[in-house]
Amino acid sequence: MKIKNIIIGVITSIVLINCGMSVFAKGLDINADNKVDVNDVTYLQNELSGFTDNMDYDLNNDGRVDVNDISTLQIEISNNNIKNIEANTKLSVVTNEYKKNVGDTVTFSIITNNAISDITYSSSDSTVAKIVSSDKNMVKVKVNKVGTATVTAQQCSKSVSVKFNVDKAKCIDISEWNGDINFSKVKNAGITCVILRAGYGKDPNQEDNKFNEYYRQAKAAGLNVGAYWYSYATSVDAAKAEVRNCMKTIQGKEFDLPVFLDVEEYRQAVLPRRTLTDIISTFCDGIKSNGFESGLYSAKSMLVDSAYPDELASKYLIWMAAPNNSYNELPAFVDIHQYSWNGKVDGIRGDVDLNYIYNLN
């Protein structure tokens, strides 16, 4: 037995050098073939079937040679295979850099030779590039703000990164008054986002006549879609009614952009600041409670003079109409700038509102 122990010791040293096995793998090369694998399990099973009393096979050191030693060997082989797979993990992606516009979503896969270890994902700036979901080697990222960010996938000690360069999005807002639209031409003209009027007011049958048609066609063209609801509310109760009416229209839709309350009526501008602010908050909170992101659209003068803009901006996205101002001249809290009311876009007859989207957080 002493000779056999010496041989096993020599073999173990070879295995450690060539395969990088753990210290626990010493003495596990049962069949002395310079490898520790399933063949050693078979060899040990045969030895046990002959009722061996060779204590060199007491791999779990419990003073017995039995089926538990086979289990110990199988576990060690499995663990060692995992370590080898992890040590040799290789990660890559098809594209290392994306140039996108605010509101876009990108889904990409991680190419890996490791099928047993989880991949974890992180973003260097989730306000710019937000990880929406991940499943094994697939990850979905939405870009929400102008800027740059890196999304990193890590598996074991290896990692691969994808850079996102995000520019402002060109956006139009439309209603039934814009008539028939060729959304493919709109997309080809460089527009990436569209905000549709869903309807107006608190009474039934006030859905925009083109809303559902526009929604289907814009989605089919690959545009990022949002909606707005034109408000006449002069009280909190009226705002609650507008929420109910809006939800009847948009329920079941999937939006890439928020649902905005459009506040521009003179009857609202002359309300006390507190009242108008509460009306806006009531609508936006009501939309949020139904699972949609929400925001406010209004003219610069109305928002600043007739409400409490800082309070609203702390809770909701702000879409401001200011065609006579550059974005740099607007308050810092503005997320979307409507810069023209008479723009021209291929695929739309006549004038159309033009906007830039800078932030969707």
Automatic annotation (TrEMBL):
It comes from the Bacteria. SUPFAM superfamilies: (Trans)glycosidases (SSF51445), Type I dockerin domain (SSF63446). Transmembrane segments: none annotated. It comes from Ruminococcus intestinalis. PANTHER family: LYSOZYME. Belongs to the glycosyl hydrolase 25 family. Pfam families: Glyco_hydro_25 (PF01183). This is Dockerin domain-containing protein.
